[in-house]
Design brief:
This protein folds into 2 domains: 171 residues, Bira Bifunctional Protein, Domain 2 (BirA Bifunctional Protein, domain 2), CATH 3.30.930; 122 residues, BirA Bifunctional Protein, domain 2 (2-Layer Sandwich), CATH 3.30.930.10. Helix content is 40%, strand content 18%. The chain contains 12 helices and 12 strands. Strand 10 and strand 11 form a beta hairpin. The radius of gyration is 21 Å and the shape is globular. The chain starts with 16 loop residues before the first helix and ends in an 8-residue tail after the last helix. The model has no long low-confidence stretch (mean pLDDT 91).
Length: 326
């Protein structure tokens, strides 16, 4: 008897998990609809010059590519739906001053993001275009938390950072690309000694500020420490004000909130506040989001944008209970 094998990190979803996935998908999309978000369904495949426009190298490496037999052009199977939604905002819905868009569908990765992760994540997300400032950040962040609650996830841990702080420091320091890349990796590892070594020769205040980022993690009290430790820079002050507003607005929701000024996930893509939700027993974030005002630039319409996305497969594993009534 032949054994019908699927490719590595590709799997069937059987009942009752398949019904659970569908229940969560419906609950979240109903929530989005009630908040004024319109559903879009981008194609599974499109030309790579559109699919990867403005995307980083990581997304390029994740994308399966093939030649279109009709046109001879290179096509790609989407590995992330956010660039597609940015294209839709810029070219198909560009007449709207504000677009609230949501989506749900499978994406495909050439290699998994982890040993036990699927190469076919079921991506669901929401994006807000045309609303600048902390009001847009708060709307998306609140929607993400409500969506997790609708899926049955109670009291998640929320980490919030702001890439604008690091960006302002390295631009003032005038670092070359090689040093900046090494510094970025050291900060992600919170390796203070390595950061200190890389900052030798910089203005002492800038070097001390970059080293301080490795320690600026915790509750809202770190914001006051940051204001006295970091340079007097308008962009840094604005970023700290944004973080303070978000923290104050989320008070009372029963969330384990942490602020991390060295959180630079998506640094090359994001432009402002970034956030990630975690739950007990899972080391990976179950939802990710942030501001990415330059996402539409490659499509000719750079404007304020923020959003979040998650993998339904991983969310169902993390929150196996029944979703709440909306």
């Amino acid at each position: 008897m032949r054994a019908w094998l699927l490719p590595e990190n590709i799997e069937d979803v059987l009942p009752p998990k398949a019904w659970r996935l569908e229940d969560v998908r419906r609950a979240m999309l109903d929530l989005f609809r009630g908040r004024g978000f319109e559903l879009v369904v981008p194609p599974l495949i499109e030309y790579v010059d559109s699919l990867l426009t403005g995307a980083g190298t990581d997304l390029d490496l994740k994308t399966f590519k093939l030649v279109d037999q009709l046109s001879g052009r290179m096509m790609g199977v989407r590995a992330d739906m956010t660039p597609q939604v940015a294209r839709i905002d810029a070219h198909l819905l560009g007449h709207n001053p504000v677009n609230r868009l949501c989506y749900a569908g499978s994406v495909l990765h050439t290699v998994p993001d982890g040993v036990y992760r699927s190469r076919e994540p079921m991506q669901l997300g929401a994006e807000l275009y045309g609303v600048a400032g902390v009001e847009g950040d708060l709307e998306i962040l609140t929607l993400m938390l409500d969506a997790l609650q609708a899926a049955g996830l109670k009291n998640p841990q929320l980490d919030i950072g702001h890439v604008g702080i690091y960006r302002a420091l390295v631009e003032e320091a005038g670092l070359c690309a090689e040093v900046e890349e090494a510094l970025f990796k050291a900060l992600q590892a919170k390796a203070a000694d390595e950061v200190r070594s890389l900052c030798e020769g910089l203005n002492p205040k800038l070097g001390q500020a970059l080293v301080a980022l490795t320690q600026l993690y915790g509750g809202v009290e770190i914001l006051q420490t940051a204001r006295t430790t970091l340079p007097d820079n308008p962009r840094i002050h604005a970023a700290l004000d944004t973080l303070a507003h978000l923290a104050d607005s989320l008070e009372g929701r029963g969330i384990d909130l942490a602020l991390d000024l060295a959180e630079l996930r998506g640094y090359g893509y994001h432009s402002g506040a970034v956030f990630a939700a975690y739950t007990g027993g899972h080391s990976r974030a179950i939802a990710l989001g942030g501001r990415y005002d330059e996402a539409g630039k490659a499509f000719g319409r750079a404007r304020p944008a923020t959003g979040f996305s998650l993998d339904l497969r991983e969310l169902v594993e993390a929150a196996p209970g029944e979703q709440s009534n909306l």
